[in-house]
Amino acid sequence: MKLRFAFLLLPPACLLAQAPDCGILPGWQQHGPVRNYEADNLFEYMDGNAEGYLIYGYGKLQGVSCQKEGDTVLIDVHEMASPEAAWGIFAANRAPELPVEAIGTVCQVAPRKVIFAKDKYLVEITAETEKDHSALLRQAAQAMEKRIPGGTALPAELGWFPAGAKSLRLIPESVLGIRVLKRGYVAQYDPAKAFLVREATPEAAAATLGKLKARFGETQPAKIGDEGINAKDRYIGNVAVFRKGRYVGGYANVKDGDDAAGLAAALAARIP
Questions:
Q1: Pairing mode, if any, of strands 29-30 and 58-68?
Q2: Domain identity same for 142 and 164
Q3: With contact defined as beta carbons under 8 Å apart, do 194 and 186 qualify?
Q4: pTM
């Protein structure tokens, strides 16, 4: 009974290692109460930015404000539905002109903000004053990363795209602007786009490919993966699509004269 009573007296930061804590900023003190939001009321905190988080599969947010000598730093920990969702928001919010760093799964440090993903958590640490806080924020991210449980592996699909992509994103709905492709990855090769959509089963992937055939109208069979097609769409140009196992993938916006089916076949070959 004594052990149980002692456990109940532990502060929240001890019970939940990933909870934000101003202790990661030596000499800084918490200002105001802990912030707690869920999907239903996230807009109260993030206003117009909330939808960009909710569409990935949102759990909850815990945050604190920390102050020292007139400066304020916000620490926000977003718990997502999956590690894939946490990475997806990171990829959507990172600044393409800045490098990524090896903190957690992936991290980016800017003068006033650091953002990193680890397991199903996305952490944002933001300085409110107009000066370069990058060294402080990097130190805070390194300390916070050690408190977050789970692995740091990237989504497997990222390693299947050929090198040289200008950007790689998780699109949470309507991949390529096509509603049938509900959720998946898109790599931009300018102008061509490679994509991969993971379905629950091979049968579901076959059904999705069938719906794409109906959408495109006139198609030609192609020897790609388990089944493939070539088509031309009024919105996404020359297209080659395949099914391999439970994945539907391919290339869109391929330039006239380029081998769309060959590009798609190379992508399909990289899928285990």
A1: antiparallel
A2: no
A3: yes
A4: 0.89
